[in-house]
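Project standup — Tuesday

K.O.: blocked on the structure for the chain from last sprint. Re-posting the sequence here as requested.
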Amino acid sequence: MEKIRAAITAVNGWVPDYILTNAELEKFVDTTDEWITSRTGIKERRILKGEGLGSSDIAAQAVKGLLKKRGIGPEEIELVICATTTPDMQFPATANIVSDKVGMKNAFGYDINAACSGFLYALVTGSKFIESGQYKKVVIIGVDKMSSIIDYSDRTTCVIFGDGGGAVLLEPDQSGVGIMDSILRSDGSGRVHLHQKAGGSVLPASHETVNAKQHFVYQEGQAVFKFAVTRMAEVSAEIMERNHLTADDVAWLVPHQANKRIIDATASRMGLGSEKVMLNIQKFGNTTNGTIPLCLWEWEGQLHRNDTIILSAFGGGFTWGAVYIKWAYDTKK
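H.V.: unblocked you, prediction finished:
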C-alpha cells in the first residue's frame, strides 16, 4: 500500500451572474475590445453586485455545491483553508465566515494570503494535514471579489480582474493518486511592483488614503509581466524535471489565469500544445485566488483517474509555484 496522499475528491466553482464586457468598459475608460483582447486575452469578467456581499458569499455558494456533489454534510468537514486577497473583513478570517454560512460547525479554519498563488499555497498546506493522518476531510477555497479593490478609472487594472471562486475537497488516498509534489516560492522584493498601498498597519485607512485612491490595486504591468513569464514557466518546467515527466505524460496544465501571453509562454516552456491547457480567462478574467479552482470545475468532466496535472501560478509579493497532481476520479456523467 502506498503512503497516504491528499486526493482531490470533488471540485466546485461559482461566479456571479453580472457580466462586465469589454464593450461596457469602453464606455467609461479609455480602452477598446481589441486593445484588451490582444494584450490579455480577456473578453468579459463577472462582477458581484449587491449591498453587503463579499468574498464569503461567493465561497459559500461554491462550498455548498461541493458538499452536495460529494454527498456529505457540512458537519463532516474538519478544516477549512481560504485563500483570498479580498477578505470580508480584516478579521475574523473569511474561512470562519464561510464555515458559519455553510454550517461547517466542526471545522477550524483560517485564511492564506499569497495573492494569485494563494490557492496553491492553501492546497499544499491542507494536504499536509491529510498526509499526517490528522484529518480526513479538508476544504480548500480560492476566492476573490476583486471588484472591491479595483479603480474603474484605471484602464491598466480594471480590464484585468473579475470576481469568482471555487473549492476542492481533500481526502486521504493510498492508491497512488493525489498531490504528488509541489514547489512553492516567494520573493518579497517584488512587492514594489504589485500591491495595495493602504489599509494595513503601515498605512492605515484615513481620509487621505481614500482620497488618494491608495486602497486600490497598484500594478506596474511590464515589470509584473516580465517576472511572471519567467517564474511561472521556470517552476512548471522544474516540477516536471524533478518528477521525470515529459510533455507526453502531462494531461493538463492548469495555469493561473492572469494573462494569455503568460499562459502561452508557460505551456511552451513545458512543451505542451494548447489542447492541453485549461483556459477560461476570456470569460472570467483574473479572479486571483479563484482562477485555478474555476478551471478545474469547468474541466472536471474531461478529467480521468490517473491524469497527470500540473497547477501553476504567479502572484503579487512576488509569490509563485507549481503542484503536480495525479487526478483521483472519473467524473460521473
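K.O.: great, moving the ticket to review. The mean pLDDT is 97. The domain at 5-176 is CATH 3.40.47.10 (Peroxisomal Thiolase; Chain A, domain 1).
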